[in-house]
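Work Package 4 report. The design task specified in the project plan requires that, given a folded chain encoded as structure tokens, an amino acid be chosen for each position. We show below one input record used in the internal validation round.
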């Protein structure tokens, strides 16, 4: 990224706009397609999928249940019925294969809102950045389980922005507009990637699930990296990149080991040198010693802080 350029401009020049947005286009098609499948019933009367992201039945046959909803149910003292448990199993296997936070980047409609806020933040050059702790999402995750246990209900689903959007689209947006606007404004003005990267307990849960996932992004051609920093600038969880890209001398990478990688593919899109690619965790002898786990999820810095100084030191 040259001074004054936005991340990805070099990639657009060399690969063309579509080539530099391949995975972004596919993700939007996936997010909107899934939303359309759920809405086809209540809006048009085509009941391909019944339910919502928390619990659904596809073609009256395939049950799918959000494992976090089932966990809250257990904490609330209710045992999910057999079909729901089957749905949990199917969803767990799926995300253990493709990466837990694929839910965030390929399924969750709130991701469109937060990506838009980040896009606008970059264009308006908004630099404000509240120092939210990334650990906050784990505290919130713990809190929603405790509240479920105390209240005997799946309390988070009443205020979960993802569920509110789905309910809002069926019954009228009403309060859901307010929640969507709050998430948007939070990410725009309060802190970069404040909601999905720091607060959302659903993202935290799927991040934990993703630790063991098979599908991975890897910096397979990291020796080709020219330190343009475009991948760091577009990554929603950019703290996950450095060990894979720059950790050769410590025996790290080239596979991105953190469960917080959303497998969104943006780093693949914007890299003119094709450093990154999708692969599996078995394809490269990635080693992540426990001693460097803290660095693997090192505290993130705001985009303006990813500076020339880091480019020099990272090399
Ligand atoms: S972190 Fe939460 S809101 Fe953001 S994309 Fe993931 S599930 Fe959706
Ligand atoms: S490392 Fe790449 S695939 Fe993973 S979250 Fe960042 S940009 Fe997306």
């Amino acid at each position: 990224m040259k001074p004054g350029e936005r991340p990805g401009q070099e990639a657009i020049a060399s690969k063309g706009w579509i080539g530099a947005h391949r995975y972004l286009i596919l993700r939007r098609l996936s997010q909107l397609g899934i939303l359309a499948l759920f809405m086809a019933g209540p809006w048009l009367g085509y009941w391909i999928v019944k339910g919502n992201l928390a619990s659904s039945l596809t073609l009256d046959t395939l049950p799918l249940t959000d494992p976090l909803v089932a966990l809250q149910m257990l904490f609330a003292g209710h045992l999910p019925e057999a079909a729901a448990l089957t749905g949990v199993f199917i969803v767990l296997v799926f995300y253990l294969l493709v990466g837990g936070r694929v839910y965030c980047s390929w399924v969750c409609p709130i991701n469109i809102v937060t990506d838009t806020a980040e896009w606008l933040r970059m264009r308006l050059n908004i630099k404000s950045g509240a120092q939210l702790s990334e650990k906050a999402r784990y505290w919130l995750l713990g809190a929603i389980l405790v509240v479920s246990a105390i209240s005997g209900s799946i309390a988070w689903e009443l205020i979960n922005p993802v569920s509110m959007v789905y309910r809002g689209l069926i019954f009228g947006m009403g309060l859901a507009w307010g929640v969507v606007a709050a998430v948007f404004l939070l990410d725009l003005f309060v802190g970069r990637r404040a909601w999905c990267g720091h607060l959302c307990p659903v993202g935290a849960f799927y991040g934990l699930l993703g630790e063991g996932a098979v599908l991975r992004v890897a910096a397979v051609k990291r020796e080709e990296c020219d330190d343009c920093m475009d991948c760091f600038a577009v990554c929603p969880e950019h703290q996950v990149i450095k060990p894979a890209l720059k950790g050769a001398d410590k025996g790290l990478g080239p596979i991105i080991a953190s469960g917080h990688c959303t497998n969104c593919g943006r780093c693949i899109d914007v890299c003119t040198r094709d450093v990154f690619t999708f692969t599996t965790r078995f394809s490269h002898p990635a080693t992540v010693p426990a001693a460097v786990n803290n660095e693997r999820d090192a505290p993130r810095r705001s985009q303006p802080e990813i500076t020339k100084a880091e480019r020099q030191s990272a090399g």
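The longest strand covers residues 55-58. Validation will be extended to a larger panel in the next phase.
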